[in-house]
Each structure stands twice: as structure tokens, then as C-alpha cells.
């Protein structure tokens, strides 16, 4: 049984934002975890990068890919970081 | 204290802010924009950061460093925006009672910043191409 549809705001950064052509969008998604959001939006952010190389935050808190997402959450998808 | 800045970093000013009567040692790291990477000639770099989480995660890094290598004061500033070759991209400074803690805390902070903070670097090459660092596979779907 698929998870119920939730309204999720997804924010894209750096290369993901460039590929998506937008910084954020609000979607109705049948998802349970942060990884589900990454996979469901993979074509939008144009990536075949494994999620393990990327990072995720939910509502401005760093999160794990297994973290649950709830209706109304904002999920931030971070491509591989390169500070310094 | 950690911050993100669109303005040039003033290392002298930052160092002066770390002066502490109990400090017997000070160590700093400066990350500069280099003119090449992986054999490609780099003209400039473009840094992007998600500031709320750079600050939140950066504070955790500084707290971890202090717990491991007790220091008296530490500061970090990371640039965003377009930077030219030779520009200062990141500055870390640590003042401590003895040199050991200053060296080790400074190393810990810059190493963790590079792998944990939501900061991205786009290289602009002299031939007009550009590319995001550490993101070789990010565009594969687009090329299909």
C-alpha cells in the first residue's frame, strides 16, 4: 500500500536548482521518507547522483534519508557539498 | 562564531577579535581561490551557501572542536558569490592557551566545514565552461 499523498514543499540548491529551473515547488507526493522525496523529484533535479552523496534537511533541520516526512513539511535537497 | 559573507574577508580584523589574555597560541587557516583544479585552468569560483544551516551546523562543528581540543576563542567566515583567483574564500582562526589545541581545533573545523556545511562551489574555467565541484554525476539525466 502506498503512503497517503502529502503536500510537500521541495527546495533545490546549486546544481539541483539549475536543473529544476526553480528554487522551490510545492507538490502532492505519496511519500514516507526524505529518500522517497529525493527519488520522486530525481527527474526534476536532473540527477543520477546517489542520494548517499547528497544531504537532506527537513524544515531547516539536517535530517537522514530515512527521516519521515509529514504533510506540510519543507524538504531541502542538497547536492554534494564543496565548501572551503 | 561562524558566518557567511558576500564581502571580502578581513583576516587582520578577525584575528584581532580573537585576542584573549589567556591565549598563548593562535592558529589560522586561509582557503584561497586557486587557478587550476584537476588539470583545468580556473578563472574564478562561485560559492553558494544555505546560510541558516551553515550557521546551525557550523556552531555544532565549533562546539565539537572545543570539546575535543579546548580552545579559548574561535571564528570562521566563509565567502559566497563570485571570487577571483587569489581571493580568500574561507578563514578559520583559533586562540588557545597552548599551540596544540589551536592547531588541532583549526584543522578539525576546516575539515568538517568542507564535508558537512551546505556550501557549493562552481568553477568557471578559462575556456568559458563551468562545473559544480563534487557533482560529476549530477547532470547525467540531463544528457540522456
Walkthrough of the structure:
- Chain A has 84 residues and is an alpha+beta fold.
- Chain A has one domain (5-78): Beta-grasp domain (Ubiquitin-like (UB roll), Roll).
- Chain A has three helices and five strands; from the N terminus they run E-H-E-H-H-E-E-E.
- In chain A, strands 2-1-5-3-4 form a five-stranded mixed β-sheet.
- In chain A, strand 3 (55-58) and strand 4 form a beta hairpin.
- Chain A is globular, with a radius of gyration of 12 Å.
- In chain B, helix 2 (51-68) packs antiparallel against helix 3 (99-116).
- In chain B, strands 3, 4, 6, 8 and 9 form a five-stranded antiparallel β-sheet that branches. In chain B, strands 1-5-7-2 form a four-stranded mixed β-sheet, sandwiched between helices.
- With 144 residues, chain B is an alpha+beta fold.
- Chain B is elongated, with a radius of gyration of 17 Å.
- Chain B has a single domain (2-126), classed as Aldehyde Oxidoreductase, domain 3 (Alpha-Beta Complex).
- Chain B starts with a strand and ends with a helix.
- Chain A binds chain B through residues 13-16, 19, 42-43, 46-50, 53, 55, 57, 60-62, 76, 78-84, and chain B through 31, 47-50, 52-53, 56-57, 78, 89-90, 110, 113-122, 132-135, 137-142.
User: Looking at CATH, which topology of chain A would you report?
Assistant: Ubiquitin-like (UB roll)
How large a portion of the residues of chain A is in β-strands, by DSSP E?
25-35%
Measure the end-to-end span of chain B. Answer: 44 Å
Approximate helicity band of chain B? 25-40%
Overall pLDDT of chain A, averaged?
92
